Amino acid sequence: MPRLAFLIEYHGKKISGSQFQLGVRTVQAELEAACKTLGRKEMRVHLSGRTDAGVHASGQVGHVDWPDTGEKDLDLWRMAWALNGILKSDISIVDMQLVDETFHARYRATSREYVYRFLNRAQRSVFLKDTHYLVHYPLDVEAMQDGASRLLGRHDFSSFRSTGTSQSSPICTVTRSELLQLGDGRLEFWIAADHFVYNMVRIIAGTLTEIGLGKRTPDSVENALEKSDRDLAGPTAPPWGLTLYSVSYPQNYNLFERDPSQRRLKEFSREDL
Amino acid sequence: MPRLAFLIEYHGKKISGSQFQLGVRTVQAELEAACKTLGRKEMRVHLSGRTDAGVHASGQVGHVDWPDTGEKDLDLWRMAWALNGILKSDISIVDMQLVDETFHARYRATSREYVYRFLNRAQRSVFLKDTHYLVHYPLDVEAMQDGASRLLGRHDFSSFRSTGTSQSSPICTVTRSELLQLGDGRLEFWIAADHFVYNMVRIIAGTLTEIGLGKRTPDSVENALEKSDRDLAGPTAPPWGLTLYSVSYPQNYNLFERDPSQRRLKEFSREDL
Description:
By secondary structure, chain A is of the alpha+beta class. Chain A contains five helices and ten strands; from the N terminus they run E-H-E-E-H-E-E-E-H-E-E-E-H-H-E. In chain A, helix 3 crosses helix 4.
């Protein structure tokens, strides 16, 4: 059975998270249903990790073992078109690739990168309202940048984890933690780490918001990291500001170039025109 | 009666154009209804110009004569908040300003700038699908840039006007006509002119698309400009790629700074926190 990796985008507004849950729309269930329609067999789709209800992804990675069809070569490019024809418009398979059986979307992932987007202006934006967290009060961007920089390195993130969740290790190594100031009041907080604990990026985003509002100091981040106490971090920022940007795998898999313009477009003959 | 200018954003997906039409949602009708709710009188809202059904705006300008309330000073900032509270989330009043009675959103406009956005990649994007025209076939960006540059200057745009429309002058002076290549297959065509004829930007976008696909040459643009024949230009590109970006007025009105981050944010006291 050939193992196929997917590069997946989704808009979280009408999606109740990534992982299968009875009775609601999830990325996993939608992908499994589309695969079943196309491949005429039940399949299990594995994703790199869970995202919460309302969270977006521009670079989620999944894999599936596709049933043997007897055909010599699977035309992955046509399969992506067919699957997108089945999926609703808020989930898109951007690329597909054949991988060997050692690949696993979750267990082979070496790091993940998220972006949390803020809009700091008075009135709502009709274009950014579903992907940016609107903050009406003035934010001190330099203080937020200072706070963000203190997350770099290997720390215990127990203070930045929602309580009552799974017992994975709270120790994460953060390789990027950076707040960018774009034009028109837009801010982007970028964070990359080997792994993340539950709600970590949204709790960090809520903490940075409080720093920007002057409700706490940048060095309160270090205090929270040291003390392992959820009450020392800020509130959980809303899900619609968060996007899973990319997932990394060992080089030998050569998985997915990031620039979609490098991907194969439709070929046409003069007769198509 | 104080005259108020509005800076307006709207997302065109669920809007049947800017100008009042019986029985459908239009920007003008929504704004007039909101003004009536807040000001308790019928008011006429004037916009800088019409946009078609499905077209977006990030910098539409309008004005209204607000009924005298007897109050000494109108608090425009609170009024914008109140109006946005009444309007649905796909229309937003970004800024308001008091103007003198010589101002008129339509007749005082000196130029308008539009952006038409393309996405040139194989599979649809869940984030850009409502604001970008997806072209699956490879586009020759240099040829499109060449074609765009030939629109600069003063020309008769009869070939780039939908037939059966109003008899305004087809002579337009184009001061910017530029195709930008952004990352990830995104292209933006920017055009500014003193005025535009009906469907002009969408017909130019359709013509540039044909140039990008190799169906016509860049110099066919010049031929179309010279001959005044609609059949010599390309098809009308879809409305959702088009955004009215800004409208310019004489300097003496000091109308609206473009950077929203310069606009007044909410002020808060320690008690708000």
